[in-house]
Amino acid sequence: KIPKSLLGIGKEHWLKWTEFAEMGGHGHGHHEPYTIPDYKIFKVADVPELVAVEKALAAQGLKDPWLRNEVWRYNVKEWGTEKARGRLIFFRGFKYGFAAFLVTIAGTALYDKIYPSDHGHGSHDHSSDH
């Protein structure tokens, strides 16, 4: 059944869209489709930091209806701490990058040893030509 919101796009486009969605959106066809978690599993009451924000807002007569969207950030078991996520972002490829750096330095040193160069410090006579 085609949803009413998509009735204007034409059946052939709808079929292509459903095939795309069933394949996980990547066109490969070998991944499980992504399932969006139910919003009810994210509860502000489970996060003391967000409860404090909610109370501070309530004291001023305000309410943040989107506060629930921040709950995932405080699930340390699944996402780690903010510090751990930061380390992951900045140091994810560090060991491979550092290894490549060492190989480059060693390769440059070996090349310079095999093919020595005077680096422009040869025996040029600069005494009377100028």
What does this protein structure show overall?
The protein has 130 residues and is mainly alpha-helical. It has three domains: 35 residues, no CATH class; 41 residues, no CATH class; 35 residues. The longest helix has 21 residues. The N and C termini lie far apart (89 Å). About 4% of the residues have low confidence.
Summarize the structure.
The chain is mainly alpha-helical. The chain has helices at 11-22, 48-59, 76-79, 82-91, 94-114.
SSE sequence, one letter per element: HHHHH
E-strand count: 0
Low-confidence spans: 6-10
Task: Figure out the total of helices.
Answer: 5
Largest beta-sheet details: none
Topology:
Elements: H1 11-22, H2 48-59, H3 76-79, H4 82-91, H5 94-114
